[in-house]
Amino acid sequence: MLICIPDILTADQLSKLSAQFDKQQFIDGSATAGWAAAGVKENKQVDGASDDYAEMQAMVVGALSANRYFSMAAMPRVMPPILFSRYTTGMRYGPHVDNALMGEAPQTRIDLAFTLFLSDPDSYEGGELEIDEPAGTRSFKLPAGAAILYPANSLHQVTEVTSGRRDVAVGWIQSLVREADKRRVLFELENLRATMFAETGKTEAFDTLTRNTSDLWRMWAET
Description:
By secondary structure, this protein is of the alpha+beta class. The protein is built from 5 helices and 17 strands. Strands 1, 2, 4, 5, 6, 10, 14 and 17 form an 8-stranded antiparallel sheet that branches. Strands 3-7-15-12-13 form a 5-stranded antiparallel sheet, with no helix packed on it. A hairpin with a 5-residue loop joins β8 and β9. The protein starts with a strand and ends with a helix.
């Protein structure tokens, strides 16, 4: 399941994050890539030792956690530290698959990945996020403040930035529900519950749907 979510960050948050971004120290992005992906990763990343890094992390994590749509789709259990990446002219990230496990022992299983766009799409050329799916490759270049959530086992790439600057926050999630098909079922049921409640309130049918949705959570969630 691949989902685009608008307005994760407000205009004020984007402005503050952009100002902080410009003050940071950067490292070679290949330093945080797996051994197979390091050779195709050409970008810069905010140094984790930078003064504002913790505040930048907290702002993005807080905004993601507050977004109901993101929470329903991702069902986060663990979220490793977010990376803040910058692509300038000539930079790209070639085709790769994200690591299945991240962090120090005990490692975190990675089910989902996300890219949160921080630059206005009209401010740079190229830099599309391309994700391979069974039906073909899809290309994404979302408005600043919007995010795309996609399976971490997807083959994907960032095309070359030919002008301007592309700033993004990227992260990964271990979901409460390991299997993608089960996440999709729960996501659709939770959306149906919300729609039903908004239209008809707390009815007998709503209570029945809630009971069965809750039973699926109990069977499938890994806490």
